[in-house]
Amino acid sequence: MRDLGLGIDAGGTQTRWALADAAGIVAEGSVGGMSATQMSSAAGRDAVRGVFAMLASQVLSAGRPVRACAGLTGFDGAGTQATQLLAEALKMAPAAISMRNDVEIAYLDSFQPGEGYLVYAGTGSIAAWIDADGALHRAGGRGVTLDDGGGGFWIAREAMRHIWRLEDEQPGVWRQSAMARAVFAHIGGSDWSLSRQFIYGQDRGAIGTLALAVASSADADPVARDILERAGAELARVALALVGRYGARPVVLSGRAAQLHPLIAQSMRTALPAALALTQRQTLAHHAAARIALHSHH
């Protein structure tokens, strides 16, 4: 019997999983998105239970893990409910599951503790540094209602705000905007009731997908370009907050929102001091979590 480690990366838009053995990744897949904030309501817990049930059926058809490491967006280290639900779904002992904040796992996939700063832009955004003692320090990541500048939700909201302010002044002017046409195509039409339902009637991860429409129109629409450039400046801001607190270190930019368009990383680079190294990399956090799970098995 070979030992298998299960890694889970649960974000607002998608939950990805991977199984690893000593030789590498042996299976992977994805189910719907979720976040730790859902654990505070009965409906949210039911939704999480459903996501975990789908995940467990995929995982167990590929192999039975001995340990699991899960990175959960919004997880604050308190509360064991998410661990309990995952343990039930996988029929594992809760002690065999390590639940962490998703940004910790992404960090450890990019740096050794103490080395550098990770700026992660997914549905939301955050900058993180794990010091040599293993303590996590952060800037941003306050949630999309408050801030999370430069993340997918922020990009979507900036676009929607711009479109509807212009509609207030000149109804129908959206037809002249490549960005507005792409946004309305994404949500199914130009009627306000559709926008309202899209923004207020579903979870933050689904809203974040609207950033794809903004990015797709950037080459044709100066407003979309401006939003993406401001997104990069917002991501630079959280990096500089950590630089100001803990000194200059290399910066890695990661997360799917950061990959929407080259303008985001370019404008982030422009907003950072020239001497500060910036690298963009795709973090496969579910792979990283699977390796952590495997290596923590004794």
From TrEMBL:
Signal peptide stretch: none
Residue ranges annotated for the ATPase BadF/BadG/BcrA/BcrD type domain, each copy included: 6-263
Xref: InterPro entries: ATPase_BadF (IPR002731), ATPase_NBD (IPR043129), Euk-type_GlcNAc_Kinase (IPR052519)
Organism domain of life: Bacteria
Coiled-coil portions: none
Pfam families reported in the protein's UniProt record: BcrAD_BadFG
Gene3D superfamilies: 3.30.420.40
Protein name per the record: ATPase
Organism (species): Duganella lactea
